[in-house]
Design brief:
Blueprint (H helix, E strand, L loop, with lengths): L7 E2 H8 L3 H9 L7 E2 L5 E3 L1 H15 L4 H7 L5 H36 L14 H15 L1 H15 L4 H21 L8 H15 L5 H13 L1 H10 L3 H16 L2
């Protein structure tokens, strides 16, 4: 029988796809994958179209999408090929980003193993226009229009500063050195309050607006979730990327009334 007219029972399709019958029943219940029809005996039967739809669903599951997100993606126009092509572009971009992160981690490992921490000076070189645009686009994609407005405000604030971006990076290097010293001394935010005061004040200057406790705690979330920041802070000191966001939140909590 040709595949175009072949029909599969739920157990046959589950076996072909490497999933459980229970999974297919669940997909049916939530409307994600409906059988083509039912046999006279009441058995679910799936055709080639359903088999291809299941393959697409499993691709999206492998990409890390939730079932609700998959249902939304499946409503996008362009057919399965168009939808998968868009996912391929996203994966290719993610692979490129991860390759860059791996390179950063390799450099961090090298600096730790050789004791050559001079390369951390590279962290304070202003980004190229291309890299900055890429980074800003990533933030806007993640945090939406409010982030786009915040970036514009920050850009205007930096442009108005006599010292410019290079001066800010020099100050950031000094401020972060104080935080690293507190970390290596085993301090918490309570004992290193002055270092965190300086860091929060610098963030406010760079943003061009106040940095209230909630915003500072939100920045901590970005530091611990964005691979670029994780790699950056691991290059400053091993395990610093874990300590800094945790203590930033503790510092922010202490500021709240």
């Amino acid at each position: 029988m040709r595949d175009s007219v072949r029909e599969y029972t739920v157990s046959e399709l589950a076996g072909l796809a490497g999933v459980s019958v229970r999974t297919l029943h669940h997909y049916h219940e939530i409307g994600l994958l409906l059988p083509a029809h039912q046999s006279r005996g009441g058995y679910r039967l799936y055709g080639q179209a359903e088999r291809l739809r299941l393959q697409e669903i499993l691709f999206y599951r492998a990409f890390g999408l939730s079932l609700a997100e998959i249902a939304s993606v499946l409503e996008e126009p362009g057919g399965a090929a168009g939808r998968l092509r868009r996912q391929r572009h996203r994966l290719a971009a993610e692979a490129e980003r991860l390759a860059g992160l791996l390179a950063e981690l390799d450099r961090a490992i090298e600096s730790i193993e050789t004791g050559d921490f001079g390369m951390t000076d590279q962290l304070y070189a202003p980004h190229s226009a291309e890299k900055q645009a890429e980074y800003e686009a990533s933030l806007v994609a993640t945090y939406g229009v409010e982030m786009a407005q915040a970036i514009e405000t920050s850009r205007a604030a930096v442009a108005a500063m006599p010292e410019g971006m290079e001066g800010l990076m020099a100050e950031l290097k000094e401020v972060e050195a104080g935080l690293v010293a507190a970390f290596e001394a085993g301090q918490t935010a309570r004992g290193a309050a002055e270092a965190f005061d300086r860091h929060r004040a610098l963030m406010a200057r760079m943003w061009g607006e106040a940095c209230p406790p909630d915003a500072y705690a939100g920045l901590a979330g970005l530091y611990e979730s964005h691979p670029d920041f994780i790699a950056r802070y691991e290059r400053l000191a091993p395990r610093f990327s874990k300590w800094l966001p945790r203590e930033m939140r503790a510092y922010a909590d202490a500021l709240r009334p």
